[in-house]
Amino acid sequence: MGMKVSKTKMYGSLPAALIFVLVWGYLGQAASFNLSGSWHLVANGKSYVLELTQRGKKIFGTLIPVNNSRRLDSTVAGSVWDGRVSFTTMNQEHSVVLKFEGVVSGSGNSMAMSGTFSYNSMRNRRWYAIRW
Question: Which domains are delineated in the chain?
Answer without folding.
Answer: 29-131 (2.40.128.120)
